[in-house]
Amino acid sequence: MTDYQNWILEIDQKIATLSLNRPEKLNSLTPQTLYELRDISNSIKNNNDVWAIILQSEGDHFSAGMDVSQIQQMVGQDEQTYRNNLRDLQDCLDTFEALPQPIVAKIKGYCIGGGLLLACCCDFRVADTSASFHLPEVQLGIAVIMGTQRLTRITGIANTKEMVMMAERFNAEKARSYGLLHNLVEIAELDEVVEDFAIRLSQLPPRTVQIAKQIINQGASLSLRESQDLEIDLQAPLLGSADFAEGVAAFFEKRSPTFTGE
User: Which of 64, 83, 170, 173 has the most CB within a 10 Å radius?
Assistant: First the structure.
């Protein structure tokens, strides 16, 4: 398995655990960090041994966001360079978000700026009571730079305006009230709760879960009729699958199904 400078990737029992490994820098993000994330995403998107993904960080904090030195380099930058660089970095998050497998973010400590938007790329977000959230970019004279609409899709326009334009820190309880979090737990419970979440996802038929994710994500921007056509088109290949037959048989036989990914 490839060694990465900023990430640790472990795959066990159908679960890929992806750990951001810059604890000495509060797990801040640099271009290299994001380029590696894109490489990792491309390496596991078609991996049949990965049915669920946990995104976490080493140390005490999820991520302090983009390294301030990177933002400093934007001052006085010519417009075309700015456009090219930012599109490239945005593509890294796009590639990660587009992974077919369900992703669970484990959030503790700082979850700031680009780190928060990285968490928004995940399908589920679980935080402990230590988590602290912040979108400080406006205070630096620039708007959010890594995909504001990710936040809007999750929390709505009004809440996103409050978070972005007021640029105030908020705690995990406030994050849950915004709709950012699927679960909020005590610090000692975080590892167990996230692991259980991922295990439950990894016990479901992977193709079905991946298609469901695609239908939800793509269908959100379509009309009702278009989204229903998408459901038909994407699910039709499942009709002859072994996992569909197993799921139906297990239901009528009143037993737990055993899915193989076929």
Answer: 64
What distance in Å separates the CA atoms of residue 18 and residue 22, rounded to the nearest whole number? 13
pLDDT digits (tens, 9 = 90+) for 14-48: 999 999 999 999 999 999 999 999 999 999 999 99
In the chain, how many domains are there? 2
Q: Tell me: the pLDDT tens digits for 99-128?
A: 999 999 999 999 999 999 999 999 999 999
Asked which of 165, 184, 202 is the last residue of a domain, the reply is: 202
- Evaluate whether residue 158 is within a structural domain: yes
Distance between CA atoms of residues 103 and 213, nearest Å: 10
- Residue 2 domain-assigned (yes or no): no
Same-domain pairing of 79 and 157: yes
Q: Count how many residues are written for the chain.
A: 262
pTM above 0.90, yes or no: yes
Q: Are residues 239 and 111 in the same domain?
A: no
Q: How many helices (H) and strands (E) does the chain have?
A: 11, 9
Which amino acid type is present at position 53? I
136 in the same domain as 58 = yes
Tokens of residue 71, six digits: 């933002």
List the domain range (segments joined by +) for residue 163: 7-202
Query: CA-CA distance, 124 to 2, in Å (whole number)?
Result: 26
CB 185 within 8 A of CB 160: no
Q: How far apart are CA 218 and CA 34, in angstroms?
A: 24
